[in-house]
Input
Amino acid sequence: YNFDFFNTANIFFSKDGLVLFSICNHEMQNCRIVALSSSNDSLYNIDALSSDVFYNTQPIIVSHKSSKALYFVSDRNGGFGGLDIWLSIIDNDGKFGSPINLGSKINSFDNDITPFYNQEEGMMYFSSNKKGGLGGFDIYKSKGALNLWEEPQNVQELNSPQDELYLTFYDAKLGHFSSNRK
Output
């Protein structure tokens, strides 16, 4: 997944063989989400998300009952400020719908990033540097799906005055995250 003219980041492997990741220029600007299909090894832009104007990154695909959605982070128009978490509904043909902002319960005027959905709990975990946290980026959680969310709660037992990001679970209750604390 390396390219001479782009940096790659935030790789997501779906259960159906689709690989999503961000490609950015060497200054880590102009990031966009691309897909790689395992059925024909072709790399393609996701037309509904493609833009040279907005920063798009951190893709994950989540199944909600009969729906499938791509969650991602962007600074596109229509957000609340900084980076917001968005979704795009994926139809039965694998086409991505127009981006929908997750709303003011998830997104703030600051940066809301690194979404991860825990299927067992029905809980979205994400990081934000919004006011009221312990400092830097804190991990929050909110119950819900698509763009219907409960008020987020600060996961204080994981947070510090430093940055906590990229929480993921590898089974129902165990996972890992990144932090720059000592």
